[in-house]
Write a structure and sequence with these properties.
Length: 438
C-alpha cells in the first residue's frame, strides 16, 4: 500500500473532536490513511484550541517536540482555533509548517491539501469566517464507538468580553433541520443509539429553512427510530427557553441533563463580561429546569478572577453554587486572550489569588456533589456502557444524567460499548457512582 499517511491530534472541545472526525473522513476520501504515531506519518496535523493560554501553548510544544521529523520530509499542518487566531504568524514561529487552516475553511480542505502536495510551502485557509455555510460531509469518520455527534450550529455571534470563539470560529450559522434529521436517521441505521447535538451555543439554533425551533428539533431527533439518548451542548442562558424543558419532559430519549454555563454569580461581573443576562435571569431558567417532572441534572462553567472581580463578587459566585446545587462545575481561572474586548480591562487579579478562588470554589462544589451523588445509593440506573477498566475489573459507563458509573459484572463476556445495563448503585463519590449490574 502506497497511500499517503497522516497523524492527527485533537485538542479542545467536543466541536473540535467532531470536526476531526470530519477532517479524517475528508482526508481518507483524498487517499490518505490515518496512522497512530507521528513517526509513521507523512503528514502531521494538529487540530488546536485557543480558549485559554495553556491550551494554545500545547500545539507549540508539540511542534517543537516533533520538528526534527521535518528533516525527514514530513509535513506539518495546524488547523482549528489557534490556526485561525495566529494565521500566518505560525509560519514564522514554526517554518516547517506548510498548512494553516481555521474550521470555517474545512470545506476547502481537498483543494488546500492538493496545493500542499503540489509543493506550495505556505498554504492557508483563513478567509472563510464570514461564510453562511456549515461544513457537512457524508464521509465523517465516526471514531467514537458509542456516541455520534452532529453539529447543528457553527460559530458564535455573542462576543463575550473574554472569549476568542467568535474570532476563531466565525459567524453563527445553523444547519437546516431536515439535513440534521437525515443525518440522525443515517446514524441510527449505522447502529448508534446516542446522539449528541453540538454547537458553541447549541440552543441559539435558528433553522435556515424556518421549519423547527431548537426545542422542536431536539424532540424530533429524540423521536428518530432507534435513538435512545439525545444530549445537547452547550446551552447559553440568553437563549434558554422554557420549551426546551417541556421537550425533555415529553420525549423519553432526551437525556436528563442540561449544561448551562453561568460564568459568574455576580450580575456586575456578568455585565462586564457582556453575557447579557443577570443572576436573576439565570436563576429563573434554573427554576424552570428544577420544576420539570423529570429530575434534570444541571452542570455549568465558571470563570474566577475576571478583571475587576471583587471578593464580594466572588462571594456571589459561591452563593450561586449553594442555590443551584450543580452536579458538575468546570471552573477556570480567567486567561487574557488575544483580540478580545476584555484585554483593555486590567487583568489585575494575581495568579495566586485566582488559584485561591478556584480552590475555594472547587472545595465547596466537591461537598455539594458528595451530597448529590450520595442520594443515588440504592437507585437502579440505566447505564450506557463506554468501556471497561480492566485494572479494576469494572465496566465504565454513564447515566442519562451524564454521571459516570463504574460497575461490576459477573459474566465472562463484558458488555459492549454502546449497550445498556441496569445498575444498582451501592457507593457514591464526588465525581462518580459505583454499583453492580442487576
Ligand atoms: N459557548 C459556551 C462556552 C464555550 S467556551 C458558553 O458561552 O457558555 C467553554 C468555557 O471556557 C466557557 O464556558 C468559559 O467558562 C471558559 N472560557 C472561555 N474563555 C475563557 C478565558 N478567556 N479564560 C478562562 N476561561 C474561559
Ligand atoms: Fe465564547 Fe460567549 Fe460565544 Fe460562549 S457565547 S463561545 S463564551 S463568546
Ligand atoms: Fe477551543 Fe476552539 Fe473549542 S478555542 S474550546 S477548540 S471552539
Amino acid at each position: 500500500m502506497s497511500a499517503k499517511t497522516f497523524y492527527l491530534e485533537t485538542f479542545g472541545c467536543q466541536m473540535n473532536a467532531h470536526d476531526s472526525e470530519k477532517v479524517v473522513g475528508t482526508l481518507e476520501q483524498q487517499g490518505y490513511r490515518q496512522v497512530d504515531s507521528e513517526e509513521a506519518a507523512d503528514l502531521l496535523l494538529y487540530n488546536t484550541c485557543s480558549i485559554r493560554d495553556k491550551a494554545e501553548q500545547k500545539v507549540f510544544h508539540r511542534l517543537n517536540d516533533y520538528k526534527k521529523l521535518a528533516r525527514e520530509g514530513k509535513r506539518f499542518g495546524v488547523i482549528g482555533c489557534v490556526a485561525q487566531q495566529e494565521g500566518e504568524k505560525i509560519f514564522e514561529r514554526a517554518p516547517y509548517v506548510s498548512l494553516v487552516a481555521g474550521s470555517a475553511s474545512y470545506r476547502r480542505l481537498p483543494e488546500l491539501l492538493a496545493r500542499m502536495e503540489a509543493g506550495e510551502s505556505r498554504v492557508t485557509g483563513l478567509d472563510d469566517r464570514e461564510t453562511e455555510e456549515t461544513f457537512e460531509t457524508e464521509f465523517t469518520a465516526r471514531k467514537n464507538p458509542y456516541r455520534a455527534y452532529i453539529t447543528i450550529i457553527e460559530g458564535c455571534d455573542k462576543f463575550c468580553a473574554y472569549c476568542v470563539v467568535p474570532y476563531t470560529r466565525g459567524k453563527e450559522r445553523s444547519r437546516g433541520s431536515e439535513s440534521v434529521l437525515e443525518e440522525a436517521r443515517r446514524i441510527a441505521e449505522m447502529g448508534y443509539t446516542e446522539i449528541q447535538l453540538l454547537g458553541q451555543n447549541v440552543n441559539s439554533y435558528r433553522d435556515p429553512t424556518g421549519k423547527k425551533s431548537f426545542a422542536e428539533l431536539l424532540a424530533a431527533v429524540g423521536e428518530v427510530s432507534g435513538i435512545r439518548r439525545v444530549r445537547f451542548t452547550t446551552s447559553h442562558p440568553r437563549d434558554f427557553t422554557r420549551d426546551i424543558v417541556e421537550a425533555i419532559d415529553a420525549v423519553p430519549a432526551l437525556c436528563d441533563h442540561v449544561h448551562l454555563p453561568v460564568q459568574s454569580g455576580s450580575t456586575r461581573v456578568l455585565r462586564r463580561m457582556a453575557r447579557e443576562y443577570s443572576r436573576e435571569w439565570y436563576m429563573e431558567r434554573i427554576a424552570w429546569i428544577k420544576a420539570a417532572r423529570r429530575q434534570i441534572s444541571i452542570s455549568t462553567d465558571m470563570i474566577v478572577g475576571f478583571p475587576g472581580e471583587t471578593p464580594e463578587d466572588f462571594e456571589e459566585t459561591m452563593t450561586l453554587l449553594d442555590a443551584v446545587q450543580y452536579d458538575a462545575v468546570f471552573g477556570f481561572k480567567y486567561s487574557a486572550r488575544p483580540n478580545t474586548p476584555a484585554l483593555v480591562m486590567i487583568d489585575s487579579i494575581a495568579e495566586q489569588e485566582k488559584a485561591k478562588r478556584l480552590q475555594i470554589l472547587q472545595d465547596r462544589q466537591r461537598e455539594i456533589q458528595r451530597a448529590n451523588y450520595e442520594r443515588h445509593v440504592g437507585d437502579i440506573l440505566e447505564v450506557m456502557v463506554e468501556g471497561n477498566n480492566s485494572a479494576r475489573e469494572q465496566i465504565v459507563g454513564r447515566s442519562s444524567q451524564n454521571k459516570p458509573v463504574n460497575f461490576t459484572w459477573k459474566h465472562p463476556i463484558a458488555p459492549a460499548p454502546g449497550s445498556y445495563q441496569q445498575v444498582r448503585i451501592t457507593r457514591a463519590f464526588p465525581n462518580s457512582l459505583a454499583g453492580e449490574a442487576v
